[in-house]
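The instructor's notes for this session suggest beginning with a concrete chain rather than abstract definitions. Hand out the sequence below and ask the class to guess, before any prediction is shown, which regions might be ordered.
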Amino acid sequence: EEENQRKIELDKEKINKLIQNEDKEVGEVKMSVYKDYIEYMGGTGWFIFILVIMILWQCFKIGGDLWMTLWMDKTVFDNDYINFGIYAGLLLFSNVFIYIRLKILVNGTFKMCNRLHTEMLGALAHAPINLYHDIEPKGRILNRMSKDLEYIIYIMFSIGTVLANLLGLIGVIGLTSYYIYYLLFFIPIIA
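After discussion, reveal the predicted structure:
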C-alpha cells in the first residue's frame, strides 16, 4: 500500500511539472493596446466619426435645453405648437445621434472581438504541441479567451460612457456659461 501511495505521489509530481503556472501581468494597460483596439474597431477615422456623432448629439441636446429656456422666457415664437415642434425636433435628432453612436460602437466592438478571437485561435493552432498544448490545461485556455473578450467588451463600453459623460459635462459648462459667463473663471479652480 505504501508503494501505491508513493506511485500516486510521483504521478502528481510529474503532472505538476507538466502544467505550468499561469503568467499574469500586473499594472496599467499600455496606451498602445488601446490604439490597437481602435484600429481593430475601424481605425482612427472610425474613432473621429464616433466623436463627431457624440458632439452632434450633445449639440442637439443642448439646443433643446436652450430652446426650452427661450420658449419659457417668451423670446421666441408666440405659437406654442411651433415652439414645441422645434423643441421636439431637437430632442428627436439628439436621440437619433444616440442611436447612431450606440450602433456604431456595438458594431465596432463586435468587429474587434471577432478579429481578436480569430487571431487568438490562429495563435493557438500554430502553437507547438509539446511546448504549449501539453503544458497548458484546455480549461485555462478557454477560460482566458472568453474572459479576455468579455473584459474588452466591458472596457470599450466603459470608454464610450466616459466620453459621453465628458462631452455632456462640456455641454453643461458651455450652456451655463452662456447665461452666467463669469462661471468660466471658476473652472480652473474647480479642476
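Then share the key points. The CA atoms of residues 26 and 33 lie 15 Å apart. Helices lie at 2-18, 31-41, 44-72, 80-126, 129-133, 138-179, 187-190.
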